[in-house]
């Protein structure tokens, strides 16, 4: 019989209450939320009432949460400038830790987390739930049919949402993390792109801040070169005026193309068209893939569960080394924009 892991929640804000707690509660045979910590104890108490946590397991001191013998692992939902400290404390306490994205506030901190992860057997994961979308494996299974991938168009654009509860948080409005909105949300897009087509070698980008509420640049238009040799465009931003919400990637091969459209985040639409030219255009296959309601969060937790129970950190899909690359791409966007769109190499961990 598999063990039940006792979860200590570090940071009891909106996402902890609205997404992480329901996901843990979906698997009572695997997880039990037993402790909560927030530097504002009142917020931890409010979360504890919702989660059914006893008053004795409510903390405003991180050290006490880390040293709680009843806590199996730490689920940290903190402003990302505190991720490195949380990792250091968790590893010192011998407790696996799951962090919210992006990995850190800057590449220096991110490299430190990668370095720690490589010198410990304690599982460390970053919550980039887009790595776990059902549509990824389906598209990857079709890539061989379109021959050599030579190009792509990645687009995630949409209208500005004034009543956005996440954007109202102070740490997002005055970001200490590089790129602000670009790294907070952009790493999801980069996770999806790189899971499909591999790592990015270099970027030529222009970034822009459209909305004051974003706190920093919130839009990027760029050209990318992949390590595979494929080239393409990457556009990301949801600070525009009224428009449709689009999230799609078109992948162009020598023998066909694939379109993945996840604009509604419920059912991914996939279109595979084969043929090496207009004259030799062959079959067209169109179908839908249902995305699970948590949009990858549940799968992310199950992946981390497997890593903790097996004691094998290699099981972790969103490892520090993997997700470092996504933040490094955001850093490259910003550096390129400062250089008027000149090509910039993506830094390695």
What does this structure look like?
One of its GO terms (biological process) is NADPH regeneration. One of its GO terms (cellular component) is cytoplasm. By secondary structure, the chain is of the alpha/beta class. The protein folds into 2 domains: 5-127 and 296-316, NAD(P)-binding Rossmann-like Domain (Rossmann fold), CATH 3.40.50; 131-293 and 327-345, Dihydrodipicolinate Reductase, domain 2, CATH 3.30.360.10. It is built from 11 helices and 15 strands. It has helices at residues 14-25, 41-51, 62-67, 83-92, 107-118, 134-142, 170-173, 181-184, 186-197, 297-310, 320-338; strands at residues 5-10, 31-37, 58-59, 73-76, 97-100, 124-127, 149-159, 200-208, 219-226, 231-240, 246-253, 256-261, 267-274, 284-290, 344-345. The strands form 2 sheets. Strands 14-13-12-11-7-10-9-8-15 form a 9-stranded mixed β-sheet. A 6-stranded parallel β-sheet has the order 3-2-1-4-5-6, sandwiched between helices. Strand 5 (97-100), helix 5 (107-118) and strand 6 form a beta-alpha-beta unit. The longest helix has 19 residues, at 320-338. The mean pLDDT is 95.
Quick tags:
349 residues, alpha/beta, Rossmann fold, Dihydrodipicolinate Reductase, domain 2, 2 domains, nine-stranded mixed beta sheet, six-stranded parallel beta sheet, 11 helices, 28% strand, globular
């Amino acid at each position: 019989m598999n063990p039940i892991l006792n979860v200590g929640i570090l940071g009891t804000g909106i996402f902890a209450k609205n997404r992480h707690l329901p996901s843990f509660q979906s698997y009572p045979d695997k997880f039990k939320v037993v402790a909560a910590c927030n530097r504002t104890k009142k917020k931890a108490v409010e979360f504890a009432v919702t989660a059914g946590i006893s008053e004795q397991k409510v903390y405003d001191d991180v050290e006490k949460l880390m040293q709680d013998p009843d806590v199996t692992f730490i689920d940290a939902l903190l402003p990302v400038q505190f991720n490195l400290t949380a990792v250091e404390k968790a590893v010192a306490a011998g407790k696996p830790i799951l962090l919210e994205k992006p990995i850190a506030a800057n590449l220096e901190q991110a490299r430190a987390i990668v370095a720690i992860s490589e010198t410990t057997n304690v599982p460390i994961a970053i919550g980039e739930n887009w790595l776990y979308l059902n549509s990824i494996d389906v598209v990857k299974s079709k890539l061989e049919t379109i021959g050599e991938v030579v190009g792509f168009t990645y687009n995630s654009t949409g209208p500005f949402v004034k009543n956005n509860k996440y954007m109202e948080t102070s740490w997002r409005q005055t970001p200490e993390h590089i790129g602000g909105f670009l790294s907070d949300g952009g790493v999801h897009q980069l996770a999806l792109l790189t899971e499909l087509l591999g790592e990015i070698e270099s970027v030529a980008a222009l970034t822009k801040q459209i909305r004051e509420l974003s706190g920093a640049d919130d839009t990027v238009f760029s050209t990318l070169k992949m390590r595979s040799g494929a080239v393409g465009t990457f556009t990301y931003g949801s600070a525009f005026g009224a428009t449709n919400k689009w999230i799609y990637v078109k992948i162009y091969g020598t023998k066909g193309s694939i379109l993945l459209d996840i604009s509604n985040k419920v059912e991914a639409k996939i279109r595979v068209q084969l043929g090496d030219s207009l004259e030799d255009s062959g079959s067209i296959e169109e179908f839908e893939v249902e995305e699970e309601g948590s949009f990858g969060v549940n799968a992310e937790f199950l992946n981390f569960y497997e890593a903790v129970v097996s004691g094998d950190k290699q099981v972790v899909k969103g490892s520090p080394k993997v997700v470092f690359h996504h933040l490094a791409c955001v850093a490259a966007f910003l550096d390129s924009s400062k250089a008027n769109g000149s090509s910039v190499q993506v830094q390695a961990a």
